Amino acid sequence: MPEIRVTPLGAGQDVGRSCILVSIAGKNVMLDCGMHMGFSDDRRFPDFSYITRSGRLTDFLDCVIISHFHLDHCGALPYFSEMVGYDGPIYMTQPTQAICPILLEDYRKIAVDKKVVEITKHIHDNRALRYVELLPLSGTVQEPQSTSNAFTPPLTHWLLSPCILIPSACETPGTSPLMLVDDELEIKAYYAGHVLGAAMFQIKVGSESVVYTGDYNMTPDRHLGAAWIDKCRPNLLITESTYATTIRDSKRCRERDFLKKVHETVERGGKVLIPVFALGRAQELCILLETFWERMDLKAPIYFSTGLTEKANHYYKLFIPWTNQKIRKTFVQRNMFEFKHVKAFDRAFADSPGPMVVFATPGMLHAGQSLQIFRKWAGNEKNMVIMPGYCVQGTVGHKILSGQRKLEMEGRQVLEVKMQVEYMSFSAHADAKGIMQLVGQAEPENVLLVHGEAKKMEFLKQKIEQEFRVSCYMPANGETVTLPTSPSIPVGISLGLLKRELAQGLLPDSKKPRLLHGTLIMKDSNFRLVSSEQALKELGLAEHQLRFTCRVHLHDTRKEQETAVRVYSHLKSVLKDHCVQHLPDGSVTVESILIQAAAHSEDPGTKVLLVSWTYQDEELGSYLTSLLKKGLPQAS
Amino acid sequence: MEPAEDWLVESLRLYQDFHAFDLSGATRVLEWIGDKGILVAGYESLKKNEILHLILPLRLSVKENQGLFPERDFKVRHGGFSDRSVFDLKYVPDTRLLVTSGLPGCYLQVWQVAEDSDVIKAVSTIDVHEKEGRLWPRMAIFSSAAPGVLHGARLSSLKVVDLESQKTTYSSGISDDELLSSLQVLDADTFAFCCTSGRLGLVDTRQKWTPSENFRPGSGSAGGRWCAEAGGRGPGPSIASLGSDGQLCLLDPRDLCQPVSLVQCPVSMPSPDPELLRVTWAPGLDNCLAISGFDGTVQVYDVTSWGGMGRQVEPLFTHKGHIFLDGNGMDTAPLVTTHTWHPCKPRTLLSAASDASLHVWDWVDLHAAR
Hints:
heterodimer; A: alpha/beta; Metallo-beta-lactamase, Chain A; Rossmann fold; seven-stranded mixed sheet; 19 helices; rod-shaped; B: mainly beta; Methylamine Dehydrogenase, Chain H; five-stranded mixed sheet; four-stranded antiparallel sheet; 29 strands; nucleus (chain A); RibonucZ/Hydroxyglut_hydro (chain A); metal ion binding (chain A)
C-alpha cells in the first residue's frame, strides 16, 4: 500500500526544535533541524536516534531542507552534521545560508549555563523570536566552561558541505523554479514572508507530494511580502500549530503602540533606546518612525548605529529579491538608509542633552554599543528602552525583562535601572485565520499540525476538517502518522493489442470486465501494455506456446463425424456466449479451443474426444473438459 | 495620507490603549467569563457558526508592569460549532455552562465548556414553545446553587426554567403579548424587562405579576424600538432606555413613571437594525454609559447633571475605529453589533462590528485632563 509517513522529532511535546522526518514514495527528507533555546543540554536538540538506529544517516536521508534562519529551525544543523555525522545535501535559500552561521556563532558565546535551564514562561507563551546578534561579543559574557559543547567545532566544515542554494522565490508568482534532488525527488520553494529568505517547500515524487510551511505570515509588512501558495493540491500539508489558537492584534495597532511609547518619551524630553538585530525589524521600525516624524513634523533626532547601517545595506543589496515590491522600488531610487530624519550615530551623541531615539546593536543588551548606551541612560526615569524580541537567559536584556531593577555589572558595580522598560513583539506569524487561508489556497488532501498539544487543538482540528473536508492529524514528537495514498500510475496499451482483442469474438457489455492477456513493460517511469509477441520481439526472445491436451471418452456407437456433430450442437446450445464453430474437417472449435472426435482404437462403441487448448484459454478449456465428461444429451 | 493612517495618528492622543482583531465571523455577542475571558458567537444563517471562548491578551489582564508583556493577541481557549445563528449568549456563573438563543426561536441551546480539552459541546436544549419562527427569546440567568434561565420573546411567554431539572419555576402568567427587547436579572428575586415599545418594568418573582412599570416615554414619542439596561453607578438615575431614533431616557427605579431626563443623542439617522441597539452602564465610572447600534461608532456619555427633557447632548467620547480601520473596503460601512465594558479597567471597552472586527480600547478622558 503506498503511503506517506511523517514523524516529528524531538524529546518532548514542547515548541522550539522544529525537525520533521517525511518518507514519501521511498524517499526520506528531513524538514528543518532546529534547536530549543530554553535548554542548554541535549534536550535542545531533536532526537535523531530515531533515524540513526537504522544505519548511516547520509544513506538514509535523501536531503535536508531548512526553511529559514531562526535557530529553532536550523540551530541543530552543526550538531547534526558534526556530531551525528550527516554529510548529505542540505537545501536552503541564500539569505538563510548567509545568516544562519552568524546566529549560531553568537549563540555559542551567549549560552553559558551548564545547569538545566528551566523553560521560562516567556518562552512558553511567546514562542518568541530566537535570533541573536550579528556583531561579535566583547567582554561581559563568560565563555562556556566545557569544551564538550556541540558548537566548539568550527562551522566552516558545515558550510563547505553541500549546501544547495535555492534561487529567489520572490518574483511573482512567488515560487522558485523546480529543483531536482535526484531523478525522482523534486522540491520547489514558495515565498513565506516571516523573515528574510523564509520559504515554504513542496516535495514531490511522481504524483505524490507534501508541502511544508515552516513559519509563514499571511499579512504583508513594511519590508516583507505575505506568504503565497498556488492550488498545488498536495497529498499532505504540514504546518506549525503554535499560533493556530491565537487571534492576532492588527499590525497597525502594534505599530501604534510603538509610536505612542516613543512619542511620549520624546515629548517629555527623554531618550529612547531600541536594541536591535540588524536585519528585518530594524528597517521596519525605522521606516515607521520616519513616516511618523514627517507627519507630525517632529524635530528630535533619530540615530542608527553605523555598524548596523553598513551590514544591513550589504545584506539588503544581496537579498533585495527577497523583500517586497515596495522596498525594492525604494531601493532602486535610493540607498536603504538614506532617510530624511534618521542619521548615523556617533558614540558622543549619547551624552547630548535632549530627546533622541537610537537604534543600536546588539539586541539583547549583552555587549557592545547598545549596552554602553543603556548604562548611560538607565538611571533616568524619563528615558525608555524598548526590547523588540526574546532575550536569552544571562543577558542584560533578559534580566530587565524579568523585572530586575538592580544589575551587577563588571567590577561589582551596581546599576540602578530607573528608565522605563518596554517589551514589544514584532514577530510575524500566521494565526488561526492565516492557517485557514493557506490551507484554502493549497487545497491539500490531508493536513498535519505539529507543535501543539492534541487536547488543546481539538477545536482547530474539527474546524479544518469541516471547512475543507480533509483529515487533520496532530502527532506528538516521535509519533509517526501514516497516510495511505493512491497514486495513479498511467499505463499505455498498444493499439495492436487492443485491435487483436476486439477481433477475437464477442465483446462484453460496456463496463463489464474482460480478461485480456498482455505483457507489462516498465522502462524509465514509462508503463506500456503490449502483446506478448511484441514484448518478445523487443526483448529478442522466441515465443513458446503452451498447449494442453485432454482426452474425454464418450460412449457413442456412431461414426466419429456424427459424434462431432452431436458435440457441436450440444456445445452450441450450452455455450451461448462463446463462438462455437463446426469446421469442414469435422473438428469443433470453441473460441480457440479445438475438439476432435476419434474412434477408440480398441472399442468401437467408445469415441475419444481430443480437447486441446492454449495456456491463455486454460479456464475455458478446463470447463469444457468437465462439461464433456458429463456426456452428451441423447439425440431426439 | 490615507484616512486610516490619519486616524491612527489621531488615536495616539485619543486612546491609552487600542487593539484591533479580525474574527473569522462577526459576532453580536460579547459575554464575560470572569474578568479574563470573553465569549463570542457567529450569527450567519446558512452556515455553521463558531462559538469561541477567548482569553484576553496578557497585556490587558495584568495589573502591574504591563510594559513587560508583549502579548497583544487573543487566545482561543475553547471553541464549538452551532448550526443555527446565535443572537444571544449567556454564561452561567460558577459552572461550565452556556445558554444560547437564536433562530429558529423554539428552543434554547445549553452548552458545556470542556475541562480537559478545548471543545464547547452542545449538551441539552430548553424548549420554549414559541410559535412564531421569526422571534427569538431574550435571556437572563438567575445564578444560584440551582441556576435558572429566565427567557421569553413576549411578556406572556416569560418563564424561569431550572437548568438542571428543566422544570419551570416561574411564569409571568399574563396574556399581554408585547414583544420583549431585553431582560436583566437584578438580584436573586428581581428582574427587569424592556419591551420593544419602550415599556419597562421591574418584577419580583416571589409575587404574582405586579411589576413596577413606566408609561411609554413621552406621550408624543414617535415610537421606534427601545432597549434598556439597569446598573448605573453613583448617585442619580440607574436605568437607561435607548430608542432607535437616538432618544435616551434615564429613570430612577424607585419611580419609573417619572423619567429623570429624556435627551436626544446626536445620531445621523435612526438605527438601521434596532435589534442591535445597546446601552450599557460603566461598572467602573460614575454616571457613565455607552450606546451603539446606529452606525459604526460607540458613543460614551457622562450623564451627571442631565436633567429635563428634550435637550441635545454631546458624547464624552466617540469610538470611530470600526469605520476607519475597515480594511476590507466594503461598500457598506460596518455597523457596531455590540459592545461591553471591561469589569475592572474603568475606561476600557470591547466593541464588535458587522465586518467581524473586534476592538479593545481604553479611551482618554480629554475633559478630565484639562
